[in-house]
Amino acid sequence: MGHSMTVRERIAWRAEKELQDGYYVNLGIGIPTLVANYISPNKQVVLQSENGLLGIGPYPTADQVDPDLINAGKETVTAISGATYFSSAESFAMIRGGHIDLAILGGMEVSEAGDLANWTIPGKMVKGMGGAMDLVHGAKRIVVIMDHVNKAGQPKILSTCSLPLTGKRVVNRIITDRAVIDVTNEGLLLVEVAAGFTVEEIREATEPSLIVSEHVRMEAY
Fold first, then answer.
1. Which of 39, 69, 135, 152 is the most interior residue, by most CB within 10 Å?
2. Which residues contact 179 (CB under 8 A, 6 or more apart)?
């Protein structure tokens, strides 16, 4: 991993480790789309988009841009060899039918119970629900990637979400710029701490209490 990475890129780089060979994966808008740039050549992973593209490649270089080839966030993308195009109805049938192994989504808030709020802030203009509500219930595993705190320095991992929910008890793992935290029946489990942070700093930046894994990895990314 290069030291010149931005915070967003570092989160995406760590999130790529969640992908396993043979997975069908949906990447949400925002930081999740960056994950496509870091997929290991040793893994065969197929990226799926709600607007009807199976086989998304990395972000295009300037000479690769095709304005007609976009993802669900209306960003231009590339397509890998063997990619296929179909209607959004078929794409949502894949999602609702349980054929997506992993969805990596952005988050505004996540609760200690695994509730996710990521689609709207009342009174502000945002892109909207998209496929998030379907993905949190249709994908086999949900990983949320986001900054650990908001622009005001307040925790985004909360005891209870204050924003309208995308889904209840749907998140399996949270990856932030500071830590990797699993949602378990016993509570939030701290499993990795990012370089430059301590366990105590993670606790202070997280509203609910954390269980620290006895195998917690320090400076994991």
1. 135
2. 148, 190, 192, 193, 194, 197, 202
Distance separating alpha carbons of residues 98 and 28, to the nearest angstrom: 17
Q: 191 by DSSP, 3-state: which? A: strand
What is the Cα–Cα distance from 216 to 180, expressed in whole angstroms? Answer: 10
Q: Which residue has the tokens 């192994």?
A: 101
Return the domain boundaries, the chain.
Answer: 7-170
What contacts 197, CB < 8 A, 6 or more positions away?
178, 179
> Annotated active-site positions, please?
50
Condensed to tens digits (0 to 9), the pLDDT of residues 190-206 reads: 999 999 999 999 999 99
Of 25, 40, 29, the residue nearest 103 (C-alpha): 25
Amino acid at 1: M
This prediction has a pTM of 0.94
pLDDT digits (tens, 9 = 90+) for 39-61: 999 999 999 999 999 999 988 99
Query: How far is residue 150 from each of residues 51, 104, 210, measured CA to CA in Å?
Result: 29, 19, 19
The β-bridge partners of 27 are 104
- In terms of CATH, what superfamily is 7-170? Glutaconate Coenzyme A-transferase (3.40.1080.10)
> How far apart, in Å, are the Cα atoms of 24 and each of 54, 102, 118?
9, 7, 22
